[in-house]
Predict the 3D structure of the following.
Amino acid sequence: MTTPPSPVAIVAVNGSPRTTSRTGILLRQITEALADRIPATIRTIEAAREAPHLLTALSRDRVSDAGEALLRTIETADLLVVGTPVYRASYTGVLKHIFDLVDRDALAGRVALLAATGGTPLHGLVGDHQLRPLLGFFRAVTVPTVVYAIAPEVAETPSDALQARIDLAADEAAWLLSAPRPANRLVERRLATHA
């Protein structure tokens, strides 16, 4: 397997409204698996910690300088790992608000790995039916395998079944990152004007 040039900027976005969460543990395990496969820098943006910078603005032009820096970190990631606890059969409103502030063209062609945690296997399709369309709106290239985990699987050492899903998704993400992608000249021009 060919790896992309180093280092790859991986940004994990944790949509949990809690500072300590199963989603945070799962995202750490996913980013560690990715770092085992590709040279990377890893940054985690936790909605619960960054709320004052991102949730106090209803539009991008009202975001603080710190919030703008966080949004640009998301927009310029080589690989996004987007995770959320399942809340009322979907992703959290906090996560949705963050993505409402992201430039609609900035994620075009970028790779995104999707993850969710829930209390029951009945919400296992939230990644495919909720998160994938959200990232699809931004024209991100989503990893085929969504990592969904129920509460008993998420621990400092994941269950064997969960680790297998993490490994499969990480392998797919590494492969997608190694594939040539078209330049997104529109996005490059837009981001240059916001600098």
